[in-house]
């Protein structure tokens, strides 16, 4: 850590006209962080923001008119709350519109199924796709299957129910099936792709999410089944008789634009040093995007506002970014996503990006602070613990290396990340479903997030702590 404190002689000679830079470990800095934390806990800004966003614009699919209108409104919201240099950064995007979709078992066991088309999968032919299904219980089994076992059939992958976990770690093994599965099935000649929804709930409510393009082209029509319907199909397969399914989708893609919304609270003495507070504006179309990720935008803007309202400006600039087009894949790197667009556009200015964090895991309470490599056990972590432990946030030895989808593209360019880990136990019950609505947000837990962000950000912004200069310490010999 590099602490550039003014010398007593410099102050005595009157060589500097502004107050000395605060050390993140100074008692006065910690005391002010606590003041900001407590004020943030009582704030109504976060709930106001997410209520207006989800009520006024509803779902905000990437590139849709509702996302564009919400971005314009958010820029005005930032200006009205004292943010400066507010701007909208547009970029081209291939949008996707769901249209109508259906799924059903046909034949002797005929019955309707509850399913949702997966994002950026193409439409079926007008009369749908009807074929026998072939079931796989792992992604590796699909990859290993001979083409002849798949050709002309509907591939069905059922990994079983996702386990709810506080850190959401059950998501990765399942979501790779959603992203890559349709491409693998298409390469083997499948006519369509179906999977169990990536979610931890047992509701008859499917989870959508994006698929990936292959060589810049869409693959095959792809769908997610609600958990009870996935169980039903798997039971039918277990009976040993062929199961036929019929799928329809009128999904389409179109050329459009998305955008990042950016607003600053300039630092008092080092405004060129930037701390990024990230979230995303777009959402899936089934709900209203309250937890994913209206809440994230609410948390970050309210945390910055709490600092602005404290009556003291920190040394460094706080930059709130509502990123566009986080939820969808794109056929080429020339379109989407907002995080990559921002990182590319900053150029050499990224050298002055001190650190970045992202709020994109709902609105339930923060339980752990994760810092860049080298900060574990540091004086900064100890100061942060003094501020955050009273509201239930523990210091973690886990290094924050990814940041999140939106801020992540800055990582390879040298920007460190922090993470305020949220309790994700119920997040994947709601994620990407029609249940992602405002009533699922607990205002008290939402404000605990705001308080954790505000207290931590004050410590970073009003100090000269240099996370880039920190190096991991070697483990002690045992």
List keywords for this structure.
22% strand, hydrolase, metalloprotease, 478 residues, Glucose Oxidase, domain 1, 13 helices, 2 domains, single chain, five-stranded mixed beta sheet, alpha/beta
Please explain how this structure is put together.
The structure is a single chain. The protein is of the alpha/beta class and 478 residues long. It has 2 domains: 16-96 and 255-469, 3-Layer(aba) Sandwich (Aminopeptidase), CATH 3.40.630; 99-250, Glucose Oxidase, domain 1, CATH 3.50.30. It is built from 13 helices and 16 strands. It has helices at residues 8-12, 27-41, 45-57, 65-80, 139-144, 147-150, 171-187, 227-238, 290-308, 338-346, 379-388, 427-430, 443-461; strands spanning 84-97, 101-106, 111-113, 115-117, 129-136, 154-157, 192-196, 222-225, 244-249, 252-265, 270-280, 316-323, 353-358, 366-370, 394-395, 419-422. The strands form 3 sheets. The chain has an 8-stranded mixed beta sheet, with helices on both faces. It has a 5-stranded mixed beta sheet with strand order 1-10-12-11-13, with helices on both faces. Helix 9 (290-308) links the parallel strand 11 and strand 12. Helix 2 packs across helix 9 (290-308), helix 3 packs across helix 9 and helix 11 (379-388) runs antiparallel to helix 13 (443-461). The longest helix is centred in the middle third of the chain and has 19 residues, at 290-308. The chain is elongated, with a radius of gyration of 24 Å.
């Amino acid at each position: 850590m590099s602490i550039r404190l003014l010398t007593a002689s410099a102050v005595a000679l009157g060589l500097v006209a502004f107050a000395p830079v605060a050390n993140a470990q100074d008692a006065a800095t910690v005391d002010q962080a606590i003041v900001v934390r407590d004020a943030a806990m009582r704030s109504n800004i976060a709930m106001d923001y997410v209520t207006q966003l989800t009520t006024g614009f509803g779902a905000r699919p990437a590139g849709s008119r509702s996302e564009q209108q919400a971005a314009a409104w958010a820029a005005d919201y930032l200006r009205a709350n004292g943010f400066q240099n507010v701007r909208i950064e547009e970029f081209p995007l291939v949008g996707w519109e769901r249209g109508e979709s259906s799924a059903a078992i046909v034949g002797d066991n005929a019955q309707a199924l509850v399913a949702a088309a997966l994002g950026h999968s193409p439409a079926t032919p007008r009369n749908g796709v009807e074929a026998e299904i072939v079931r796989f219980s792992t992604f590796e089994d699909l990859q290993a299957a001979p083409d002849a076992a798949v050709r002309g059939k509907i591939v069905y992958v059922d990994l079983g129910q996702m386990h709810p976990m506080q850190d959401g770690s059950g998501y990765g093994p399942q979501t790779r099936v959603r992203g890559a599965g349709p491409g693998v099935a298409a390469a083997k000649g499948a006519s369509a792709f179906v999977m169990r929804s990536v979610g931890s709930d047992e509701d008859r409510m499917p989870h959508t999410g994006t698929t990936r393009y292959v060589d810049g082209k869409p693959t095959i029509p792809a769908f997610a089944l609600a958990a009870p319907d996935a169980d039903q199909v798997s039971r039918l397969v277990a009976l040993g008789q062929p199961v036929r399914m019929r799928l329809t989708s009128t999904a389409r893609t179109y050329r459009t634009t998305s955008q990042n919304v950016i607003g600053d609270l300039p630092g008092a003495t080092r405004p060129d040093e930037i701390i990024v507070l990230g979230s995303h504006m777009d959402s899936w179309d089934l709900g209203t995007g309250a937890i994913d990720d209206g809440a994230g935008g609410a948390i970050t803007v309210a945390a910055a506002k709490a600092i602005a309202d404290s009556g003291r400006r920190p040394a460094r600039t706080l930059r709130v970014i509502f990123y566009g087009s986080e939820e969808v894949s794109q056929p080429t790197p020339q379109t989407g996503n907002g995080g990559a667009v921002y990182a590319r556009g900053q150029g050499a200015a990224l050298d002055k990006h001190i650190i970045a964090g992202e709020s994109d895991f709902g609105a339930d309470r923060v339980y752990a602070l994760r810092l860049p490599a080298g900060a574990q056990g540091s004086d900064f972590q100890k100061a942060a613990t003094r501020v955050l432990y009273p509201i239930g946030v523990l210091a973690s030895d886990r290094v924050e290396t990814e940041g999140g989808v939106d801020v992540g593209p800055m990582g390879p360019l040298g920007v460190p990340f922090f993470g305020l880990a949220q309790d994700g136990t119920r997040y994947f019950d709601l994620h990407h479903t029609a249940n992602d609505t405002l009533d699922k947000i607990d205002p008290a837990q939402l404000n605990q997030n705001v308080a954790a962000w505000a207290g931590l950000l004050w410590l970073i912004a009003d100090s000269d702590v240099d996370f880039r200069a920190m190096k991991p310490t070697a483990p002690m010999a045992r």
